[in-house]
């Protein structure tokens, strides 16, 4: 238990480094290059992160399971999976670059290539999963911290010496390349030289990955699309400059989510081990209150601090990001509550239901963004996120027939029930 707790704390530390690094790095770059160029960078990363997700095929889940069962076999699967992911990503990224380069300027093409290369190293960085499975998440933290420091230093130098913004392509690549190299070197040091899988093993493991990942790929694509769809809508209807501003709002509004997620992760085991259906409902309701309590404090703080923070760190050109940032925090809360409901459905083996639900979420996001973004601009994009996550949290769960889903939420209209949930804290242990 102590080792698991230490590993969890290292994982939280990794998220903190990534989140705060992302905020200050993006603010530094955004203020220097302006909304239009920053919008190009954001859209380029957005496209290739999506392609990376598709090529990844849920490999982290598959590898964690295999590594926990058999370390040697898990390493061979990891090596084979990296070759498969590398091949798939190259095919997808080549098509993506061919399409995007026709519409972009020469400067934009530099950022497109940089984004593609950066996401390549992120995609094949399966040692990251290995370290988490082996309770060595601190190695990931060290590698990511070094990459972040180098990337920040280069960005600072580019701004200090007022170099051509095109040089920012270099730290974009190094931000993923350096951690990848460090993790690989540490893996070789502690695990010895890696023996490449034979052609027969490569085929067998690749077929296994495709078969296992194939069951997840449709859901993965849908999730990857709907979480990025509003950024594409903003770019299409409002322009690249507005996409850069909206990207800032998305970054800031999601920076705090790791905290409630870490708390939820501590309580999920007790929930999943609960055999009494009535007690399980009580526990899931208490997790709802936990999310709402943490989120309420964060949203209040963001509403108060967002205007001066964005003005100081990003500059006056990004002041339009203030209102969407606050609204998107509300959307992030509904997203967390939706994930809690998804765990409840998973407890009762509703995997097929979740796949169907995900596609309806994608459809709602597509329609709402197409309607609200042209009408209300950046705030409309934020409203689209709120509407999508709210329906994902509520209505789209009520058709799961295996459990009384609506009853879970109906109880929150009773002050007496809320008081009971707050006082019955022992059920969360």
Automatic annotation (TrEMBL):
GO terms for cellular component: membrane. The chain crosses the membrane at residues 12-30, 36-56, 77-100, 106-127, 139-161, 167-187, 208-226, 246-268, 289-313, 325-346, 358-376. Its main location: membrane. Signal peptide: none annotated. It is a multi-pass membrane protein. It is found in: Membrane. It holds the Pfam family Polysacc_synt. The keyword DNA damage does not apply. Keywords: Membrane, Transmembrane, Transmembrane helix. It comes from the Bacteria. InterPro entries: Polysacc_synth (IPR002797), PolySynth_Transporter (IPR052556). PANTHER family: LOCUS PUTATIVE PROTEIN 1-RELATED. This is Flippase. It comes from Pantoea latae. The lineage of its organism: Bacteria, Pseudomonadati, Pseudomonadota, Gammaproteobacteria, Enterobacterales.
């Amino acid at each position: 238990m102590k080792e698991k707790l230490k590993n969890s704390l290292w994982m939280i530390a990794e998220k903190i480094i990534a989140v705060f690094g992302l905020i200050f790095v993006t603010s530094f770059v955004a203020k220097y290059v302006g909304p239009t160029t920053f919008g190009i960078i954001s859209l380029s990363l957005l496209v290739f992160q999506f392609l990376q997700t598709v090529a990844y095929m849920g490999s982290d889940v598959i590898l964690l399971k295999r590594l926990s069962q058999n370390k040697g076999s898990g390493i061979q699967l990891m090596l084979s999976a990296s070759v498969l992911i590398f091949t798939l990503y190259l095919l997808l990224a080549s098509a993506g670059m061919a399409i995007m380069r026709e519409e972009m300027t020469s400067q934009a093409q530099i950022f497109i290539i940089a984004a593609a290369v950066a996401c390549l190293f992120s995609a094949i960085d399966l040692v990251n999963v290995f370290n988490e499975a082996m309770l060595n998440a601190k190695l990931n933290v060290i590698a990511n911290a070094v990459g972040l420091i180098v990337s920040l230093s280069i960005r600072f130098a580019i701004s200090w010496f007022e170099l051509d913004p095109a040089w920012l392509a270099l730290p974009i690549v190094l931000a993923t390349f350096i951690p990848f190299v460090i993790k690989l070197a540490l893996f070789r040091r502690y695990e010895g030289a890696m023996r490449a899988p034979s052609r027969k093993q490569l085929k067998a493991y690749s077929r296994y990955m495709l078969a296992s990942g194939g069951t997840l790929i449709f859901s993965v694509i849908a999730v990857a699309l709907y979480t990025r769809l509003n950024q594409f809508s903003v770019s299409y209807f409002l322009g690249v400059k507005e996409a850069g501003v909206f990207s800032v709002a998305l970054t800031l509004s999601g920076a705090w989510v790791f905290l409630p997620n870490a708390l939820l992760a501590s309580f999920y085991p007790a929930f999943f081990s609960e055999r009494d259906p009535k007690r399980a409902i009580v526990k899931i309701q208490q997790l709802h209150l936990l999310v709402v309590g943490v989120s309420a404090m964060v949203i209040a703080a963001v509403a108060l601090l967002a205007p001066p923070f964005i003005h100081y760190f990003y500059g006056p050109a990004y002041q339009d990001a203030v209102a969407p940032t606050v609204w998107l925090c509300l959307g992030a809360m509904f997203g967390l509550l939706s994930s809690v409901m998804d765990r409840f459905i998973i407890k009762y083996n509703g995997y097929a239901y979740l796949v169907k639900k995900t596609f309806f979420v994608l459809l709602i996001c597509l329609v709402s963004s197409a309607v609200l973004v042209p009408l209300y601009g950046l705030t409309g994009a934020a409203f689209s996120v709120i509407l999508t996550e709210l329906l994902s949290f509520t209505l789209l769960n009520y058709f799961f027939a295996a459990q009384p889903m609506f009853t879970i939420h109906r109880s929150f209209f009773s002050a007496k029930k809320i008081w009971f949930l707050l006082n019955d804290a022992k059920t969360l242990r």
